[in-house]
């Protein structure tokens, strides 16, 4: 668990908003929205454009495989692009893109419409993709990324985006599981001035991916890359001769899949979370308004990467659904100078900001003088996401960017929920803010904190976070593994969705999400499973066994550390350590950089051979080791302790 700070349950800040209510009032109104949540969500869904209205708001005949707005038909590309093209927003700026190198590009809704149509045409006519086919998108933060996602959605082609900080093994496993026919990548991506060889990584992955017929390469860096004849094509060559065109959007059923997004669990390979179309867009429509209070004149900026769910929901589908103007930034927020982020706010007069605690902590580290160089007074609403926000980070950002007066919150949700579930709601009813808290569940969503038996915990006590009702935006399933979907989320507490987080509900009804209750590690808010890291570690020829845990880090929240047992004939050395760390970077990606490797002779295991990471974590964090009755060999605990001491 990553939270170590004391929670300021009592502190309340009241922003000057005329929709500010006290928490009892909110709870009462909220109760009415969850009492008949299906009707409540129908009201939200009816604000979208449907080719055909649904016959049934929810099909709950086969729980937990709920289907929302059954019989309804719509298209995500139509809703995010055509609808605005056909309105006064045609010439409104949709995306202001800024490259890490300072180049900029503006796309109006008309530009987006033309590009999405041309790309959809190319995918259909040249790549022969049809509704139900899958593609994988492995691109940096360039405008082509949302364009390909929207073009795929237009055709009913299911896409899976792989974060460009992942490497070849991670990429291959996701391509293979989704059975992608085409991979879209770039000749390189910029990160802190360096070029990441995305095409080279793709080539390695595709060698292991028999379903891939073609690779499309977007030119970004101009780097020389290998092009395999008959398989690989440059995007600009494919698109050049395609004129302005119109591709009729597929009429998708509400419950048709829009995308698959892989996310790490505790055991086994990453889970392909499948999101539907109608429920997902309904949740995004609601939350864009309630949480971000999005308005026509706003300039919205979400600093996430589209490779994660935050970018899918709150860079691509949410803001474009609302016809907003948004900033999309390619690179690192503190590159080339620590104030890059603040200069972007000033330059584009960003009014709604969505960022992460890790980013905020890194800004804090550089000092106030960097923010003070810029006018950030345009920001009127801000939120963070991805991990708990410590009250110090909240207060620093609130003072330095929020000027001590605007709404600021920590939105809790996860890949699986599709959109925000618990949050302060400046665009709906705002309750006083508590620094570090997540606020209360959004309308229509019932959350609770329960004990091991699924009974409600007393206020102020730690328990497990659950969602008690189905909600639009919930997963359809885990791709090709419905049993696992049931087992991971719906079996621990029957009838409730188990989020895997520890939480407290305080005396006033505020939720405080404390961190993962399982072995998922949150590095800079990015979700990493121990399994992928450990599999990469044992690919190093000297490593026999490995265990990974997360330990807290002042900026990144958590970082992974590894304990490894070497194969016979190998001895510990600094050089070997470096090699092992590099293997993980190469296989999983730079994002999965292991902070430290400790060599041990034994790992704490149960008698049935399962590694007890809980025990390792307890030793590493100097906390109570707890029940070790199932431990096979107690000496292993001592080994961990000694290894940590020796290398510290
Ligand atoms: O532990 C919670 C944490 O992030 C997890 C979900 O990670 P992911 O699927 O990558 O989605 C992240 C972005 C939506 C959760 O189980 N988490 C996310 N937001 C918060 C949070 N923890 C505390 N406070 C938050 N605001």
UniProtKB/TrEMBL annotation:
EC top class named in words: ligase
Record keyword Nucleotide-binding present: yes
EC number(s) recorded for this UniProt protein: 6.2.1.1
Gene Ontology biological process terms from the UniProt entry: acetyl-CoA biosynthetic process from acetate; carbon fixation by 3-hydroxypropionate cycle
Record domain AMP-binding enzyme C-terminal: where: 532-610
GO MF annotations, alphabetized: 3-hydroxypropionyl-CoA synthetase activity; acetate-CoA ligase activity; AMP binding; ATP binding
Protein name per UniProt: Acetate--CoA ligase
